Amino acid sequence: CGGLTGREAHHLPASTTDDGKYSRIRPLLLSGEGVTICRSDVHYIITEFGIAYLFGKSIRERALALIEIAHPDFRPWLLEEAKKLGYVRTDQSLKSKVAYPIAEEREMTMKNGSKILIRPSKASDVEMLQNLFYHMSQQDIYTRFFQRMKSLPVAQAQHFCNVDFEKEMAFIAVTGVRENEQIVGSSMYVMDHATNLAEVAFMIRPEWQSVGLGRALQGRLAEYARSKGLRGFTAQILTENDKMISLIKQVSDQIEIKSADGVLDVVALF
Length: 270
Ligand SMILES: CC(C)(COP(=O)(O)OP(=O)(O)OC[C@H]1O[C@@H](n2cnc3c(N)ncnc32)[C@H](O)[C@@H]1OP(=O)(O)O)[C@@H](O)C(=O)NCCC(=O)NCCS
Fold this sequence. Notes:
This protein has 270 residues and is an alpha+beta fold. Helix content is 25%, strand content 27%. It binds coenzyme A (COA).
């Protein structure tokens, strides 16, 4: 297709063939199939399950981004084939069975006037998320993880972006154009079925702190959680983490705080 921007965008008629028997996104070309466009020229691939931004991405990111927009029935097979071909790690999982919730994307303006995009995260965001971690200060890493950490292994980073959009949700704040995004803030929750509450966690890049990004991310998480019928949030916060304490108190007036061994256990009901 191409376009006014000079970028190659490819819109598949559907993620499967008309009879639904075969995926149009496949691990390999079939015998005799030809390629007319070089892979490095393709910027986007679009299906009814979302948009894969491929330009400038690594093989792993590209493979995952394509699997995420394939029909859910074919995603497990595609993931297994991608593992066999060495495109993705053998411990890679894909939790989402539904389409990427594009309607949840929001452009927002921060207190310093900067515009950012807050969007649901994807499994293919993992490398950008590791990059965010490596830009955090040791102090921030300590207040986030309650321990000193020198690295964020892929398996752990996956936990913060590879969510099912149901009992787990994650929003990230990104700057830059789609093909070259940078994550400046991450937020997530994991729901506890027994209580119908969700535990939240945040990580904002130091130069983006105190401009309202935590508040904006928490606002999106709370709106989403309410739409899923959750009762409220819980958080474990170090007693000296004033900013996070102020942030969680913004969830509602119904706050319960218990303190033990330098850690606050907070319950905030909607
Ligand atoms: C804690 C954290 C998530 C807050 O995010 P943030 O984007 O910096 O916070 P915001 O700018 O949205 O401010 C939220 C509230 O904190 C308070 N606050 C902001 N800056 C503050 C500061 N320097 N000191 C004390 N309180 C402050 C304000 O009450 C503010 O509310 P307001 O906007 O109504 O004034 C972020 O600083 C962070 O990632 N810290 C490191 C990791 C961490 O501790 N994560 C939390 C563990 S779950």
